[in-house]
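Appendix C: a fully annotated inverse folding record. The material below is reproduced so that readers can follow the format used throughout the book. The structure is listed first as tokens, followed by the designed sequence.
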């Protein structure tokens, strides 16, 4: 939404005791002050976040795509591109478009592994996201590989973040169940 217009002294109501001519508005020498718009990428991100956080995924999708486009177009924002792909993948996943979500998470992983190496903590989100996609599409062996890797990274770097670990463990336990690795699944279910 557009910001409210700035209020100037000339816009204020005149006190009743003063003569009207005293408060006449001077001719406009300059256009009214406006607030500069935000960076278009940030505007798109804020719209995405607003829709995504309220589970309005259909409405969030075009904004997630726009953030990716703007991040790809600006070489100063290349470090933000994997995050943009993760957000796009999460939105596509929520909409059940697993093929597109897979492509988004794979793109994020490729960028991060090329720039950060294979042990960066930044890999946790795309690994877990891609693992969830594979679990949702009954590719449980692939899901286990990726979720195991994400869980190992979480345990090394975020042992104080039980929510993140629990989310990954829940998906991993389901994948273990699906491929008949019940003992490993049970151990995770107990931890959760």
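Designed amino acids, in order:
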């Amino acid at each position: 939404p557009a910001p409210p217009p700035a209020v100037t002294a000339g816009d204020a109501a005149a006190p009743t005791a003063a003569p009207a001519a005293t408060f006449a508005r001077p001719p406009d020498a300059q256009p009214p002050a406006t607030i500069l718009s935000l960076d278009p990428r940030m505007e798109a991100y804020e719209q995405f976040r607003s829709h995504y956080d309220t589970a309005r995924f259909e409405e969030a999708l075009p904004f997630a795509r726009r953030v990716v486009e703007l991040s790809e177009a600006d070489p100063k924002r290349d470090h933000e591109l994997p995050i943009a792909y993760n957000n796009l993948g999460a939105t596509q996943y929520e909409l059940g478009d697993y093929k597109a979500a897979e492509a988004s998470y794979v793109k994020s992983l490729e960028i991060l592994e090329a720039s950060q190496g294979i042990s960066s903590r930044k890999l946790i989100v795309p690994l877990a996201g891609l693992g969830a996609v594979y679990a949702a599409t009954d590719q449980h062996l692939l899901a286990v590989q990726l979720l195991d890797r994400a869980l190992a990274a979480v345990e090394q770097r975020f042992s104080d973040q039980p929510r993140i670990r629990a989310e990954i463990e829940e998906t991993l336990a389901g994948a273990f169940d699906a491929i008949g690795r019940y003992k490993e699944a049970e151990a995770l279910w107990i931890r959760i």
